[in-house]
Amino acid sequence: MSKSRDDYTAANRAAWEASAPYHEEGAEFASLLAGFAEPGFSCLDGILTERLEALRVAGKDVAQLCCNNGREILSVKNLGAGRCVGFDQSAAFLAQARRLAAAGGIDCDFVEGDVYKIPAGYDGAFDIVLITIGVFGWMPDLGAFFAVVDRLLKPGGALLVYEDHPIMNMFEPGAADPHKPVHSYFEAGPIEEQGAIVYDGTPNLPGATQYWFVHKLSDLLSVALDRGLALEHFREYPHNISSVEFDVYNDQPAQLPVSYVLVARKGA
Length: 268
Ligand SMILES: C[S@@+](CC[C@H](N)C(=O)[O-])C[C@H]1O[C@@H](n2cnc3c(N)ncnc32)[C@H](O)[C@@H]1O
Prior knowledge:
Elements: H1 5-25, H2 27-36, H3 46-54, E1 62-65, H4 71-78, E2 84-88, H5 91-104, E3 109-112, E4 126-132, H6 142-152, E5 153-164, E6 191-193, E7 210-212, H7 217-226, E8 230-237, E9 259-265
The structure holds S-adenosylmethionine.
């Protein structure tokens, strides 16, 4: 019998929970703790910062879906945003987020739960909904995910996405020839994987079973348009924003699109 959305979500929650200690023990988390202790610290790169500024983030209410350890929504708050809320279903990662917030005395709420079940009390509460780096692939149902984005946005609010380009799902960075496509762009998944989810390339750490879903760029655009969101900005970039093993795709003579930014606006 095939799994339900709740089954996939529960499996992925267990996999992220099991992976959380590796992240909290790593050098990256220590550097974030030190960083957020400084006033105004931001881990955001120039591209995301510029897009947030173009959306006039100062004073705006911002939600980040699947915020993980909260480093990005805390940075958004430090850019001068108004109410900031990070949503994620991993209690262990949200505990890390609260540690980072406490390090800098940053006023940001973190809400634990399945993104598909965010309480109606948050409907229409946000000027900007932020989604970054490795979120869509965890979503068994992209249409339902965009329905949540839509209901969280205020009229006239904007969805801001900074994500891995789905073409990268065709490649295996650890393969003998990492530049040879090995998966169809049109493969839907789910792809079942085992082991800890880490960003620093450490191989074979023990972890749980997880499920990855491949959403094409056209799937993403279709669900956004189906919700009535108006595409306002779209750029593809040649640089990796994901795990370090994908750095092998940077600076190539035949350059792939490795990441992208999208802004789509809800009607006023
Ligand atoms: C790759 S991480 C996001 C990383 C973050 N953008 C960053 O760069 O720090 C993906 C997150 O999605 C969360 N997640 C996956 N499925 C979810 C669901 N159904 N509801 C809520 N959170 C979910 C995981 O717990 C994980 O923290």
